[in-house]
Amino acid sequence: MERFEKDFIESLxxxxxxxxxxxxxxxxxxERSRVFKGDITPKExxxxxDYASASALKDFLEREGFRPRxxxxxxxxxxxxxxDAILIVDPVDGTSNISRGxxxxxxxLAIADGPYLDNVYAGYxxxxxxxxxxxxxxxxxxxxxxxxxxxxxxxxxxxxxxxIAITHEIPGVSKSLEILRYTNYPRHFGSAALEDxxxxxxxxxxxxxxxxxxxxxxxxxxxxxxxxxxxKVWIKQGIxxxxxxxxxxxxxxxxxxxxxxxxxxxDILNL
Length: 271
What we know:
Blueprint: H1 6-37, H2 42-64, E1 69-72, E2 86-93, H3 95-99, E3 106-112, E4 120-127, E5 133-137, E6 141-144, E7 147-148, E8 161-164, E9 185-187, H4 192-200, E10 206-214, H5 216-219, H6 222-228, E11 232-237, E12 251-256, H7 259-268
Parallel strand pairs: 1-2, 8-9, 8-10
Antiparallel strand pairs: 2-3, 3-4, 4-5, 5-6, 6-7, 10-12, 11-12
């Protein structure tokens, strides 16, 4: 597959995300009071927001005449492609957060020129509530709002700020919780895309999610951004080291600021 130029893809992603953001906030501002009144559940609210974001993207792609094969959390996975390209979309990463008014959610867009996650060559993540945007392009680098990103050179787990997904995990059994014995700074934020981006910009040092429940939509863009910022990413789909985009789910990921920190984490978690 032929790759699109950096400036074209970045501009496309920025414009698409802006329209997605407008639709998201229209629903968010109009409907959130109904959640607090009990007229709709947070889950129903989240579905409305996801749908609004995905609808905006679909309209945008059709208007621009850009018709890649789309893999999305929403309904248009079987979008009819004219272009030999793969677009990986999470209309809202962190839907549970936004549905409860927690302002840590993102739009995630990535494009690949092959069937594997390591074929992703451009990724874009926009923080819905702050407007901060992260962009990475293979071999070029990673940027936040146009400023080059670089991971923090943290080596010791005891010094590392760690984001760790603990949902559905059982203390004493979960592999990932073992890391808590080796760090002073555990966190759990609820948006894999943004957590990866925080590693890329040096705010976090590690993002750990080894539950096996992530999907390519969640980290399609952000894993590239981490790599392009100089970080290291360990990722598996089940027992496979290479992730098939069309298999979608079953992902485990560790995004680390440094090779040593990644190796130490893998050793602690016995992975």
